[in-house]
Backbone:
């Protein structure tokens, strides 16, 4: 099994506070109460540098999506703190939290949530209209050009391929110049070739634009595009690898997956 730091490489003690895009400190998240309570995160701490590409992996039920939801302010931790830059999310009331998410966080999901009646460009600028803020047409054109949609700006989603629709979603996530982009299984519904194109695009926005990207995925090949891979199991970080190959990632995942012979260990 590849060697990795014991804490999963989650803590970066060399980074200055201004270099950190998002920080979770001793975050626990429990759903339900009493005998029905389920703890999805157990005292997780992680700091992600600005301009980095991090993949989060783990078996089903390991808490990786809950980690993303807490880091993005979509869910509040039961205990612990989450900072986006110097802002502690738990101190914000819901209207302010919604405003912060629109302005400083980008989202790319497997379910694209594109409005079929709008053009690609109108879908990209939708966050501005929802927030009541001014659109910068030159920046929107640049973003759409960077994701390869310069000649598709007036097309509606039904006129675009699956990969092009995902590029619209990525452009929408980048248009507000967010501090960080969270991508949850963004290639899950795409064929292999199109999925690789989308992953290369995410890699490109980190390298060329200095964007910070967090990718939640189950795919070792997808995770290999990241600078760092963090592994979760049972709501905790189980290890981490810097610049790993898909083969190294798959080996780690094989050790994290429960055995089918164990109670509750059905393949996931």
Residues:
């Amino acid at each position: 099994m590849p060697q990795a730091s014991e804490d999963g490489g989650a803590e970066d003690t060399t980074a200055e506070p201004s270099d950190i895009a998002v920080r979770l400190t001793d975050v626990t998240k429990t759903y339900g109460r009493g005998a029905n309570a389920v703890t999805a995160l157990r005292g997780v701490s992680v700091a992600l540098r600005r301009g980095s590409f991090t993949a989060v992996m783990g078996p089903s039920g390991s808490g990786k999506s809950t980690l993303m939801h807490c880091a993005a302010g979509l869910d509040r931790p039961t205990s612990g703190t989450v900072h986006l830059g110097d802002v502690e999310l738990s101190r914000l009331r819901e209207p302010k939290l919604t405003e912060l998410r629109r302005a400083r966080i980008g989202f790319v999901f497997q379910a694209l949530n594109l409005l079929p009646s709008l053009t690609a460009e109108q879908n990209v600028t939708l966050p501005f209209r929802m927030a009541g803020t001014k659109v910068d047409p030159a920046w929107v054109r640049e973003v759409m050009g960077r994701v390869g949609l310069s000649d598709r700006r007036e097309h509606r989603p039904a006129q675009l391929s699956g990969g092009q629709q995902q590029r619209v979603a990525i452009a929408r996530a980048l248009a507000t110049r967010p501090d960080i982009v969270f991508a949850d299984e963004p290639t899950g519904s795409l064929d292999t070739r199109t999925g690789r194109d989308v992953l290369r695009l995410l890699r490109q926005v980190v390298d060329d634009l200095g964007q910070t990207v967090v990718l939640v995925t189950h795919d070792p090949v997808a995770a290999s595009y990241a600078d760092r891979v963090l592994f979760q199991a049972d709501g905790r970080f189980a290890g981490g690898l810097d610049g790993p190959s898909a083969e190294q990632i798959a080996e780690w995942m094989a050790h994290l997956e429960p055995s089918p012979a164990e109670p509750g260990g059905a393949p996931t």
User: Anything to note?
Assistant: The chain is about 30% helix and 25% strand. Residues 192-209 form the longest helix (18 residues). The beta strands are 20-31, 38-49, 53-57, 79-84, 87-88, 105-109, 180-184, 213-216, 228-233, 236-242. Residues 51 and 105 are 14 Å apart (CA to CA).
